[in-house]
Amino acid sequence: MGENTAMEALYNSAQKVMDQVRATVHEAGLAAEAKLVESVTRRIASAIVEEVQDWPADLIAIGTHGRRGFHHLGSVAERVIRTVSMPVLLIHGRRGHSAAIASVATTRRWLPG
Hints:
Helix content: 40-55%
CATH class: Alpha Beta
Strand content: 5-15%
Number of strands: 2
Radius of gyration: 15 Å
Low-confidence stretches: 106-113
Shape: globular
Mean pLDDT: 74
């Protein structure tokens, strides 16, 4: 498999996951936008932070490796959390996105706004 073909496969796989998450979010009655950020020269955490600054987002959702505890977040999640001023939802890698979205949908009902 050539480098371009491998990158296309990764991109398509990531896009499929984002489409599934977006559909689950909409089914929960929440609005969502998603963007797949590619970066070759920048660290991915920096790329995410730069993209977020241009969006009027209320929440950032990031997948984690699935390990437990604050000390095992992963370098990307930790850098984003330390840099942005908005809430960050960490989605446990093994549990999937559906439980996290349901939690946000339930919490949102209790928050003003």
